[in-house]
Amino acid sequence: MKRKVVLVICSVIAIGCLVLMGKTLLDKNRNQIAWWVQAGAPDLADVMVTVPDGVRLATDVYLPAESGPRPTVLMRLPYGKRTYGEVRFWVGELTRRGFAVVAQDMRGRYGSEGTFAPYPNEGPDGAATLDWIINQPWSNGRVGTLGCSALGESQLMLAAQGHPALHAIVPIAAGGAIGSVEGKNAYFSAFEGGVFNLAASVGWFGTEGGKTAPKSGYHPIDPGDVLDGLPVDGLVAQLRSDETDYEAFLQNFDNPQYWRDAGYITGNEAFSVPALFIDTWHDPGIDSSLTLAETLQNAGASVNTIIGAGTHCNYLGTDGDTVVGDLPVSPDRRIGYVDLISRFLAWHLGNGPAIDLPEYTYFTLVDNQWREANKWPPADAIQKQLYLSAGQSLLWKKSAISDLKSSFLSDPENPVPSIGGPLCCTGNPEDREGPVLQNSIEKRDDVLLFSSAPLEQPITVAGPIQAKLWVTISTPDSDLVLRISDVDTQGNSLLVQEGALRLRYRGGFETPELMTPGQIYEVTVDMRQIAYKFEAGHQIRLHVAGTNFPRLSRNTNTGGPIYSETEVRSTEITVLSDTNEPSALILQTLPN
Questions:
Q1: Kind and range of the H or E run holding 448
Q2: Per-residue pLDDT tens for 358-407?
C-alpha cells in the first residue's frame, strides 16, 4: 500500500510540474521524475555502511510489500544509485516479485566517502556490504547481484572474494572485468589487441572519471573536440582539470602487477557462485565475457551464458523485432530476459523452483534463430579457412593460391574512419554502433579488400574469428585492423565483426618487441566472436587496414612510447601469401 500511495502522489507532482513549470523544468528534472514515479522512494535512504578501512558507503534499501526476511539483490555502481535508469528499472521489477533491493554508490562516488578507482576496492567493499546485509532483519541471508557494464564488472570482483552469503550473480556485458585470463589483457575494455580504445576511454573518463564524491557525476564534454589531438595521454586533461585514472591506464598497460592490484580477473580465483552471464554480439567485451564465463566454469561454478543481438547493455530491446545497426533482427522466439533473470535469482536466493538452462544460449544473426550448446564454440562447429590470394580474393583451397604481395600506406594523419562495430562516445550523434554498412571506406587506398566468390550455399559461423597473416612493415611498429563483412548481391558490405593488433605485441602483451622494417613476420589477429549466417549468393570479405579512428588510437609508427608522442610517421604495410606460407581467415562454421 505504501508504494502505491507514493506512486500516486509522485505522479500528481510530476503532472503538476509539467503544467506549471513547462518544458524547461521537465528537461532539467526528467531523470529524477522518472525515478520517483517508476520505483518509489527508498524504504531506507542513504544508510552509511562502514567498510573495514573506515570508509562509509551510501546505501539505499527498497523493500517489497511482503514483510519478513527476504532474498536480496545488491546493485553497486559508480553512476548515482538514486538516478541511474538501470537501477530504477530493476527496483520496480524485483520488489514487486518479493525481493529486497540494495543500491549502493561505489566509494568516492556521489554519496559515498573515499576515493574511486576501477576497481581495486570493489571486491572488499562488496564483501563488507554483504556482511551488513545479512545482519539486517529484512534479509534472509542469501544475496545475489545484478547489473550491466560497471555494475557487472564489480560483481566478478566480489565473486572472487568467495563470500558465503553470495548465492548468485548476473553479470551483463561485464567483459571489462578481465585481466590476464588467456592473454586477453583488455582491462575495463580499454584495450583491444594492445590498442587503446580511444573514443570510449576518453569519453568515459572525461564524463564519468571523477575520483571523489564532489567530482562524481556526469561531466558534460564533447570528446570529439580532442580525439584527434596528441599526445594521447593528455586528452582527458583537456576536458576536465581534476584527477582521473585515464593516464594511469595508459602508463601501466605493460605492468601486470598494476592490473592485479586493481582487482582484474586473472583466472586464479576460486570462483564457486552460480552465474548467469548475458551479453550481445556487438558489445566491445564479448570475447572477454565468453572467456570469463569459461573461467568461472573451470573453477567449478555453475554457469549459464546467453548471447543475443545488440550493442553494449542494449539487450532488452532486441527481444523482439528491431534493427541493430543496419541489420534487421526478428527472433524466432523471445528469451524474456526480465522474467528469466528474476527466476534465476529466485531459484538461488529464495524458494523459487529450479530452472533448466543450457550452458550456452546464443542468437544467430541473419537467420534469427536462438540455438543451444553445451560448450563454446559449439561441439559441432568445424574450422574452415579462406586463403588470401592474388586478385584480392579469398579461396577455400590452399592449393589454388596465386602468390600475393599487396601493399598500402597507412598514414596516422589520414586514418580510416570508424564505422559501426563497438563504437562509442565520439561526441558525434551521427556515429552508430553495431553491424553498419562499410561501403564508404572500401574505395580508400589504405584498405585492402579480399573477397570470396559468391557462396554456393549458406554458411553459418559460430565462434571466434581469426586471421593469420604474413606481413612486413616499413617502420618498427604499427597496427593491423581487420574487418569481416557480408557483401550481398547488390554490393552492400555489412560489417560482421572486427579486431586489431598492435604489432609490437605479436608475441604476447607481456613481451613487447619491435619489428625489423622489411622483415616478414607471421601474426595472428583476433576478431570478436560471432554467430552469423552468410546467405547463398553473398560474399565473405576481409578488410586489412592500419587504422580505425577514433574508435582506436593511432599508432605513431615510430616504435617509441605511443601515448606520449606528438610526431607520427606513415608506414607501408605489405600482406603476403603463397602455398608454402599462406595468409588465411579462420572461421568456425556450423554444419548446414
A1: strand 448-452
A2: 999 999 999 999 999 999 999 999 999 999 999 999 999 999 999 999 99
